[in-house]
User: What shape does this take?
Amino acid sequence: MKKTISTLFVAAVVALGLASSACAEDVKFVGVITKIEIAGKDAKTATATVKDNGSGTPVLVTVNDDLTLDKFKDHRIVEGDEIRCKYETAAGKNVSKLFRKTAGC
Amino acid sequence: MTRTTIVAAAFVLAASTAMAGEHFGRESIEKSGYQGPETCEECHPGTAKAFLDTVHWKHESKVTNVDGIDPKKPYGMKNRIYVMCNGNDIVNNLKEIPKSPETGKTKFSGCNTCHPGNHLSDVGSTGPEAEKAIDCLVCHSSDYDFSKRKPYKDEQGRIVMGQDRSTKAALAIGKPSVKNCMVCHEAAGGGYVVKRGFSFTKDTDVHAAKGMVCVDCHKAKHHKIPTGLDPNNWANDGVRISCADASCHGDKPHKDADLNRHIAKIACQTCHIPRTGGAFAKDFTVWTQTADKFYEPTTLKKEANETTPVYAWYNGTVANTPHFIGPKGSRKDGKSKIMPFKIFQGKAFYNAKSGELLSMDFAPPMASGDTRGGVESAARTLGLKNPEQVAKSAVPGWQTIYFGSNHLVTKGKALSCANCHAPNGVLNFKNLGYSDKEIVRLTTPELYLKQLVEKQKEEW
Assistant: This one.
């Protein structure tokens, strides 16, 4: 019994691994925010357009984590800020896993 | 009504409103609007004046536990020269930097942006103007618009640090939240968790997970915020905190007597903060160009919890030389404990004649990468003789700094017996002063085998 479970488990991991390498690999880049779209104080999600420093192309990033959303809401992060971003593509969206200003003091 | 009666009445009423969790002054502020600290002074008289006498306003204090400095003079971010920042409030005063030769653009930069003043009343300023300039809301409002907190040039061409002084922000007063403190502390040293390597979220700290905030531990009276004995945090308001304070955990926090026995020699942080993070190396002699064509100090950094600390005996006194800032102590002095430190190494310019570490004005290197220009400007500001020559002959060198590692507390990942008492354990017993014979005794499963077998049974 124990063996079957672990075999199943391995199979599951492999399957997930394959699935994720097909569409959900993390992408990392640094860029400047050109637009933040957020629907009010209670919004649970936001979309930021970030111009990739490397390629110069705009990337649409979906932000769902509370800490970053709060920074959008109270303007600790605003358009024009350079940020470091890591995202994963799921269901056609680039979902942010890390979204941080590069600057400090 | 006199001011005292207003205040007295306010305090009587406060008892009832406090329960609602709303600031008592709200109604009055709603009526008359927020004019800055004067508004608060109506009911909290003397607060602004007292604030001017704190580290958060002065960025310096007398320091008695550090070698090689004058105990009669004040030290802090205002005037210190070391390699995490290399600039300070004086030499790297907030200003518009020269235009980038590549883009023709300029920007504002300066260490004293991490200050709750408006720059016209700057770090350490005194008097009625200074009192009026304090940004009470940056620490006390939960509805602060941070887009207003940035430098700009006023009509007279002076550089002003903006504040949110809206009535809206003043209607959301309370004790400081994590966010209020992290406005400055999160990006200190040049970016996210760069300086101290700690974030304070439910995933990174047991106290945050329990809903605690900074000031639940850093409880302040008259705005004197207590700190500990981080070898690189010198300025202090004369009040200290420690994990073992009786009001927090005391010195026997575990049910397990074996763990409690260690507390005489091993600091809580050693077991409970097994990781650190942030910048571990910086080069101020060569800056790196960024996408906006400006330059930043070349920096190697990691996220919170991604690097390992170093361990050393520490008795609360600090060695301080141009090439080293770190803990003093030994196994034998009866006062030291083994503590974890976030290690950091930085490269900067040294005075060719005196061997002293030089500081840097960031404006020249930020605009064009000219690091010696930054040294020259700083030398001029500080009144060194022949600044041009000082900069030209300056020699690059490294300084190693041990930062205290006092957040990122964990229970589940706390070090257990086998993490230390094994030949490949986290502590280097030899460096810590144990004899070969003692090391044999300290690195055998004999010490913990029975106990851990019991635990293993429970777990499975």
Observations:
- Chain A has a mean pLDDT of 82.
- The interface with chain B takes residues 30-32, 53, 67, 70, 74-76, 78, 82, 100-105 of chain A (CB under 8 Å).
- Residues 71 and 77 of chain A are 5 Å apart (CA to CA).
